[in-house]
């Protein structure tokens, strides 16, 4: 996969679509900020993509906490969950960004992991997510 031109950085769904074309056993994928906000999706309706983003963020956060406590590092390369008929892969994708991929049960984890890493390496600068500014006291006290 080739790199991303700066003017294409806003629409990242085509990257995920390309990943699905490279590895046909991928059922869908989402790119999210580390705090769970959906940035791009392929293969899921909006509601499912947002749910997977929230779940992936939680699993990634748990893995980071585990690493900080037991591995002297909060660096997480990949989280893999083997489900009944699917496999879930969650990888760090750049500053404050995470890539989650749901593949079929028959997927070769080495192939999925390799293609995810290859995608991330080729476009990492465009996957970074800026940290959202903290809410001011006035904004926090404002009724919704």
Automatic annotation (TrEMBL):
Domain of life (superkingdom): Bacteria
Location of the Roadblock/LAMTOR2 domain: 13-103
Alphabetized Pfam families for the sequence: Robl_LC7 (PF03259)
InterPro entries in UniProt: Mycobact_SerProt_Inhib_Rv3364c, Roadblock/LAMTOR2_dom
SUPFAM superfamilies assigned to the protein according to its UniProt record, in alphabetical order: Roadblock/LC7 domain
Protein name in UniProt: Putative regulator of Ras-like GTPase activity (Roadblock/LC7/MglB family)
Organism: Actinomadura livida
